[in-house]
Structure of BTB domain-containing protein:
Amino acid sequence: MDVVYSWGRGEDGQLGLGDTSDQYRPVVVEALRERIVVQIACGSGHTVVLDDKGDVYTWGRGDDGRLGHGDNGWKFVPRLVESLQTKQIKQVTCGSYHTAAVTVSGELYTWGGGMYGKLGHGNEVGHSVPYLVETLSNLKVDQVACGSRHTVVLLQNSDVYTWGDKENGVSGQGDTDGHQYLPCAVEELKNKGIKQIAACGFHTAALKLYTFGEGKFGRLGHNNERNQIVAKVVDTLVASPIRQVACGGFHTAAVSDTGEVFTWGNGDHGKLGHNDQVKVTLPRAVDGLHGKRVVSVASYNEHTVALVDPVLAFRPLLLSSTYASDMQTLVDDPDFADVVFLAMFSSGMRESRELEVPVPSIRIPVFLALLEYVYNDVVAADMTAEMAIELYACADMYGLDRLKGLCEVLVQKGLVVDNAGVLLQAADELHASRLREICMHFIIRHFDYVTKTEGFHMLSRDLILETLQNR
């Protein structure tokens, strides 16, 4: 079972350990020990997490209502945000004084301090419980990111909307006067195929890599310190396709498709990783990570963290070499080396005499994803719900319970009106009770839309009757 640890400053109870003490080493958050946490976000004095069932917990500083419990009180241990229990949340994040959550059906809820209009409700009124952003109710939100005074969302159609403070061009709307109280499309990013967004402090980034907002310290990566009031592509990274970007308070970090890390902006305290404290106004590769494949980066005001794939050097052998493998697994046509244990070949064990194990029912991409998990403990975060449920079937076949849990999270994240029927049928055939419950609940909540899809009409008679009875 996954365990959550926290450490550092505890003045506001943001560590979730029951008091306000600082911690100088990681300590288990006991209140979450029975939960499988899949996302964590930290604000200015408060923390928010999402578990594998779609429940949201918050704790820490509660002024402005940022915890979502209907009051402004501090909470020293994680507490369930009760008003979101029926919403099936797929993403949570927070700014300094506000918090946001996206549902699997594409709704956005915000709460906390309403200053600058950053909650998106048409005014500066704060909310102490999650409140639906009604302007976006007819659109489908995929991701949300929060800065100090603004909020950004990425829709499922790849459009980007911003609202809140306009100072320094952080909204990307082309001006710097006043505040944007309602979500407004960033015209410069329309039809650009944006895949991910990030925000922190007073600047914003969107992949394919565009940046806008305050340019101080060169954090936008345009070789100057000018503010950028409309989204502008980071030219020097066009030749290095970026897969993920993270915004710190005064710097930016990005990971390329090949696992290379680039950083730029304020270099104080060595947060750019260039072995100095020098300001950098153009993206620069972090030489200290050369030869390593970074899979993600995270940053805040004065530090940066990179998650590195530990077995990059061995991956080609693990997935394709037949040397020192105990057997070959046939999936469709190609063969892949399985577990690499040279000792087995010299031990006289039965494995040394096995030649092939056919597994014709598993598609090649799914089997590769299975091997990726077995060897690296990694599942692609952008995996589609349809592929995730196939991978779930593999995990069930081989008794990989943790992988089944990860697949459940991915299915829940990718569940939409168009695929709900197909996924429910698959979950039912797999006897996957948790997946079945997730899909059924989604269909009931969006019944009028799902019933018009081809996938719903392909459901078995028993499942159709069950949805009608549960409605």
